[in-house]
Amino acid sequence: MRHVRRLFAFALALVMAFGFMLPAIAANGDLNVDSQVTVTGFESGDTVTAYHIIEWKDGEGWELADGITGIDLEDIVDGLNAEELGSLASAVATAVSNNKITPVQGATINDTTWTLPCNSVATAGSYLILVTSNNAEHVYNPAVVSADFNGTNSAAVDLTEDEATLKKQDVTVSKVADNAPEDYSVQVGDIIPFTVTVTVPQYNSNWTEPYFAVSDVLSTGLTIETNPTIEGLTAGTDYTLDVKNDKSGFTIQFSDKYLKENATASVDIKYSAKVGEAVMDTAQVHEETNTVTLEFSNNPSDSSDHKTVTDETHHYTFAIDAARFGSTSDKTNELIKVGVDEGGNAINAYIEGTPLPAKVSALAGAEFTLTGVAPNGGANDEEAYKQTATSDADGRIFFNNLEVGTYTLKETKAPNGYIMDTTEHTVVITATYDEDGTLTSYTITIDGKATSTYSVTTDEETKETDSDIDSVAPGNNQVFPINNSKGTSLPSTGGIGTTIFYIVGGVMVAGAAIFLLTKRRVTAE
User: Fold this and answer.
1) Strand pairing of 36-40 and 163-165?
2) Per-residue pLDDT tens for 153-167?
3) Is residue 274 a contact partner of residue 452, using CB atoms and an 8 Å limit?
4) Strands 113-117 and 173-177
5) How far is it, in rounded angstroms, from Cα 213 to Cα 258?
6) Are 453 and 440 in contact (CB under 8 A)?
7) What dihedral angle (degrees, nearest 10) is formed by the CA atoms of 422, 426, 427, 430?
8) What's the whole-model pTM score?
9) What residues have CB less than 8 Å from 165, skipping those under 6 apart?
10) In Å, how far from its chain's centre is CA 247?
11) Contacts with 283 (C-beta within 8 Å, 6 or more apart), sequence order
12) How many Cα atoms occupy the beta-carbon half-sphere of 297 within 13 Å?
């Protein structure tokens, strides 16, 4: 009987022991954790960083990770809006800086999918996902993804989202000439209005020092005419403006307050620039390339991590009988000043690079004026644009600072021993451009004849230079001859030459009349 009592007591103790163990087993051993958490929506090459922010703690249930303060667990599990996500990320950033929390390890990235294996109580809970973009044109919003216990558990917390698709904000910049394509070609004195458009993302409170700035650097031929403004924003409050002393560029930096309070917005920066004499060189095409750079914070965990995006505009001036692009000795040949052939016949056609007809030579010393397209920043009359030129030893007549348009060419003085050509010639310059305003070809037409057409190739690797034209190839260019016959130009009607003959003749007639009258009186006496 004594043995039976001992056996019963042992069994009762065993049952009691198991009874004390059951709550613990129910709390942990019978629970099945989601096998993994998954994040998509980013691009190949982006950096994904995850922090374990809600953890399961035995006997206590779900709790925020150590070091995360200023936000409640209930706020997270009830769902977070964009601003609350930013607050959470900010709290995590503080915990990271205090060495209270570190990024999780063991995740894998397969191109555009991030996966973290779970399968255990230790890995259960919620993760804050932060992404740093490798592409300079995106900023990602934070996200939360969770590995919950499947089935019933003792924590009244809903952590069912084991997959998350990231949301990103595009960051872009564009610069345009408001009067394009007219302002793709320019001349000294032109005023070019510009609009720089940027997409400003919303930087939530987790961005401790967000940076967002626009810098516009003008090329040597342009200077700022009217300072930049942003409609609807206040300088000094929403942004600061710094214009260079020489008016060669500016920087606009948006304030921390504006960046955090603004919802994603498109902002237009407007200003104008004036074309200066630096565009007047000896090349057949002169290019002004102007670059705008947007620099912005791209990593919420590192305020010094910035990305940049750029855009640019192109502006051109053209020249006649100028230095061929890339050469200091070879010149183009749109016009040529020549004499007539031995029979006195005018030279009506000439192909560039071929010999002139026998006993016909190029003539130096002829003087010309070219009038036409006026600068848009000056008087709108023909005389507002006027150049003079003298033909050189090869008969070339150099004019530069020309934009697309129509001009009048007139000879004002013939070479010594030749008769001046009194014909007024019409010169027309046309051009074609790519969608981004890059020059592809231009044509010079004189008196209705397309004398010269040039195709333009742009070197995409030299965008940082003032001129990024790689080559300008001529076509089968017809040169327009302006002929002079040998002889002396007669004075024009009403000129001093004709007048003097009239004066001398009149004096002689008057003298003869006086002589005859005097002689008659003498005879009569």
Assistant:
1) parallel
2) 434 345 667 788 888
3) no
4) unpaired
5) 12
6) no
7) 180
8) 0.73
9) 39, 40, 41
10) 18
11) 319, 322, 323, 325
12) 24
